[in-house]
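Quick review question:
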């Protein structure tokens, strides 16, 4: 069974999952990012695909929180699985 690691999820995936951008828009923005050196969010805002306020919300209220709680939740899951294996039948 694979375990979910929120730190491996990219900001573009969060935005696509939220329905804020399309995969094609992310591809274009990633190409722009390579050529300009700008951050992905800055490119998306510059192109008018996402508002700056929305980017800040996604980063501060969704991504940071999910990544912050992901670690303790993963640890709890592992401990629960270990306990279940040690429990006598």
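Suggested answer, residue by residue:
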């Amino acid at each position: 069974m694979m375990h979910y690691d929120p730190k491996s999820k990219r900001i573009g995936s969060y935005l696509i999952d939220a329905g804020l951008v399309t995969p094609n828009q992310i591809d274009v923005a990633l190409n722009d990012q390579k050529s300009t050196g700008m951050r992905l969010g800055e490119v998306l805002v510059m192109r008018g695909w996402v508002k700056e306020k929305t980017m800040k919300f996604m980063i501060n209220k969704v991504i940071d929180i999910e990544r912050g709680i992901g670690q303790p939740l993963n640890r709890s899951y592992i401990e629960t699985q270990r306990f279940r294996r040690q429990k006598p039948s």
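Why it works: DSSP finds four helices and no strands in the chain. Residues 10-86 form one domain.
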